[in-house]
Design a protein that fits this description.
The complex is a heterodimer. Chain A has one domain: Rossmann fold (3-Layer(aba) Sandwich). Helix content of chain A is about 50%, strand content about 10%. In chain A, β2, α6 and β3 form a beta-alpha-beta unit. The radius of gyration of chain A is 19 Å and the shape is globular. Chain A has 13 helices and 7 strands. By secondary structure, chain B is α/β, with parallel strands linked by helices. In chain B, α1 packs parallel to α7. Chain B contains 13 helices and 12 strands. Chain B has 2 domains: about 170 residues, 3-Layer(aba) Sandwich (Rossmann fold), CATH 3.40.50; about 140 residues, 3-Layer(aba) Sandwich (Rossmann fold), CATH 3.40.50. Chain B is globular and about 60 Å long. The chains are: A alpha/beta, B alpha/beta. The interface between A and B is large, with 48 and 40 residues. Bound molecules: thiamine diphosphate and magnesium ion. Magnesium ion binds next to β4 of chain A.
Chain lengths: ~325, ~325
């Protein structure tokens, strides 16, 4: 394969994709045990996108995420301990238990956060890109968005602002072809969402979202173009969920043959295969990595369970000036 | 002048902090519809002073995002009525980010806009919507009535870290008043006695301050001494100043231009009855806009929002509640 990413990158991509897979799979178990409340939107099946995109970004860049945000957070390098702690509403969580799954952010490291409002990450991400421009920084901001959000008014408004102001902004549409149970064909006449960008003069691409390496390469090019003053850029990554919309949605409306098609193109398998095929990583090494990541998650659960919750007195003090 | 005071504040803060910038419709070359931003483009350039397309949700959202990422945006929205297009970004994003992130995230976002009736611009350009923002925890709501406060409050807004709804009034831009040069800061939550008096406490803000002061002067000629209290910021609210005045006068009139239903005046009245019930010698009077959209016709427009005579009548009712038997009969 030409231009194969370095061994280091390939290993990072596999580790990240696998870490997300474990987080979601094990997280769902914790949810079913009653340890996690509220909404939990698994990223299962879409791991290739966050993984490929974030591997192509630098320290100092920004990301903004969605309601289905665990994968972006992990790919951006979040501490799994603090993520699990947040889901378990503990004081050691990223938001000290004030945010939960849909609001995990790490503003000190440029993660603008997940978002409970579909589409909201787009203007926020463009804003971060504007802040970078005002500061004179060449930082790039990526907003992870969705097929559902592309029909929201701020999609056009903010992408257009990014365009007229030449911002270092990359809009990644994770087109998993559903908004809850609504098929994309019911939401738009043209299901190739990248064309939305083309229509307002934004360089736009489509990529197989289940191919982490392809996503990585495209994002790398996009980030380079942005830093050379040729932003913004739109990337539509086609993908498919492995299950329903959230933990409690059986997803019966998802046709089995479509699901099988995408499961046969599983992004985590592809990341693993790349490491094996391109770098010749032996099975023992793969097993070691997987074992390490599984252990890391168990440790995170242990950490979270042993953490305390915010006290009523701390809470009152925190909100005193509202 | 009020608009010059605002310009001075923006200019001084842009000079002081390179992360302060301003975006809005027609604010750059044209200097804004109310001439607040005149000259800023020439001085600071198009990186920090820029026009936007007509995309209120987008520009408010982008401002909020920039603030989250550490810049200090001012987003100018032509009419408060148009801010309704950006409500998600204000209510669900800006107002909530600090709490949702457990205090790590801050949103030093300032939305400047103007409201109010009296311009013959009808129902979609005349509203007083402060109560909407007042209702949302996490927002600061600022309503300056005089040039000096406009400057001092805007400078403060650009140095603190929470989202600010900076609500100007279309009738105040040309109003005159002394403005201290240079470093003049008015902290949030510190109200101001605009006229001291001993008979009645009259609480008002924004354009209802000049109107209430006119009413107070007329009443003074009849020997009635009104104290006009201007909270200046509705969130945070200077309860102490209000309660101290009530303890002195024992009578309260609250004047707001906004519609009566669900208004800030009602909330201030409820605070007073909770915290100073035994100081009161008469029921609290509220003078407010009618519960209707603002009509275009000049006379009807006037009839829709409090006028000087309405304020005078309310003060008199408050001084002699026993004479107003209609209330007792109801
Ligand atoms: C503004 C808004 N409308 C509706 C919802 C409820 N909702 C949550 S997720 C979702 C579907 C989103 O689909 P999509 O945007 O494609 O993202 P996906 O779930 O497929 O990742 C809906 C309707 C919401 N959170 N925000
Ligand atoms: Mg979708």
């Amino acid at each position: 394969m030409q231009n194969a990413p370095s061994r280091e990158i390939l290993e990072k991509i596999f580790r990240t994709a696998y870490r997300i897979r474990v987080f979601e799979t094990e997280g769902i178990k914790l949810y079913r045990q009653g340890l996690i409340r509220g909404y939990f939107h698994p990223y299962l099946g879409q791991e290739g996108i966050a993984t490929g995109v974030c591997a192509a970004l630098n320290e100092g860049d920004y990301v903004a995420s969605t309601h289905r945000g665990h994968g972006h957070c992990i790919a951006w390098g979040a501490d799994v301990k603090r993520m699990v702690a947040e889901l378990l509403q503990k004081e050691t969580g990223y938001c000290r238990g004030y945010g939960g799954s849909m609001h995990i952010a790490d503003i000190h490291r440029g993660n603008l956060g997940a978002n409970g409002i579909v589409g909201a990450g787009t203007p926020l991400g463009v804003g971060a890109a504007l802040a970078a421009q005002i500061r004179g920084s060449d930082a790039v901001t990526v907003t992870f968005s969705t097929d559902g959000a592309s029909n929201n008014g701020t999609f056009l408004e903010s992408l257009n602002l990014a365009a007229i102001w030449n911002l270092n902004f990359i809009l990644v549409i994770e087109n998993n072809q559903y908004a809850v149970s609504t098929r994309i064909e019911e939401s738009t006449r043209d299901v190739d969402l990248y064309k939305r960008g083309t229509s307002i003069g934004v360089e736009s691409h489509q990529v197989d979202g289940n191919d982490p390496l392809a996503v990585y390469r495209l994002t790398q090019e996009a980030a380079e173009k942005c830093r050379a003053g040729k932003g913004p850029i739109l990337i539509e990554a086609k993908t498919f969920r492995h299950m329903g919309h959230h933990v409690n949605d059986p997803g019966k409306y998802m046709p089995e043959d479509r699901l099988a098609y995408y499961k046969a193109r599983d992004p985590v398998d592809r990341a693993r295969n790349a490491l094996v095929e391109i770098c010749g990583a032996p099975q023992a090494e793969i097993d070691a990595i997987e074992g390490e990541i599984a252990a890391e998650f168990s440790d995170a659960v242990e950490f979270a369970r042993n953490s305390r919750e915010i006290t009523a007195a701390e809470f009152r003090q925190f909100v005193a000036d509202y | 002048m009020y608009r010059e005071a605002l310009r001075e504040a923006i200019d001084e803060e842009m000079e002081r902090n390179k992360l302060v910038f301003i975006i809005g419709e027609g604010i750059a070359e044209r200097g804004g519809s109310y001439k607040v931003t005149e000259g800023l483009l020439a001085k600071y350039g198009s990186l920090r002073v820029r026009d936007t397309p007509i995309a209120e949700a987008g520009m408010i959202g982008v401002g909020v995002g920039a603030a989250i990422a550490g810049a200090r945006p001012i987003v100018e929205i032509l009419y408060i009525d148009f801010a309704m297009l950006g409500m998600d970004m204000i209510v669900n994003q800006a107002a909530k980010f600090r709490l949702m992130t457990g205090g790590d995230g801050r949103v030093p976002f300032v939305m400047r806009t103007q409201g109010g009736a009296g311009g013959g611009v009808a129902a979609q350009h005349s509203q007083s919507l402060e109560a909407l923002f007042y209702h949302i925890p996490g927002l600061k709501v600022v309503m300056p009535s005089v040039p000096a406060d406009a400057k001092g409050l805007l400078k403060y807004a650009l140095r603190q870290d929470d989202p600010v709804m900076f609500l100007e009034h279309k009738h105040l831009y040309m109003s005159k008043g002394p403005v201290p040069d240079g470093e003049h800061i008015v902290e949030f939550g510190k109200g101001d006695i605009k006229r001291s008096g001993k008979d009645v406490t009259l609480i008002a803000w924004s354009n209802m301050i000049p109107r209430s002061l006119e009413a107070a002067e007329a009443l003074a000629k009849e020997g009635i001494d009104v104290e006009v209290v201007d909270p200046r910021t509705l969130v945070p609210l200077d309860k102490e100043l209000i309660l101290t005045s009530v303890a002195k006068t024992n009578r309260v009139v609250i004047v707001q231009e906004a519609v009566r239903r669900g208004g800030v005046a009602s909330d201030i009245a409820s605070i007073i009855q909770e915290e100073a019930f035994y100081d009161l010698d008469a029921p609290i009077e509220i003078v407010a806009g009618l519960n209707i959209p603002i009509p275009f016709n000049l006379e009807l427009e006037k009839a829709s929002v409090p006028q000087k005579d309405d304020v005078i009548a309310a003060v008199k009712r408050c001084l002699h509640p026993e004479q107003f038997t209609a209330r007792a009969a109801n």
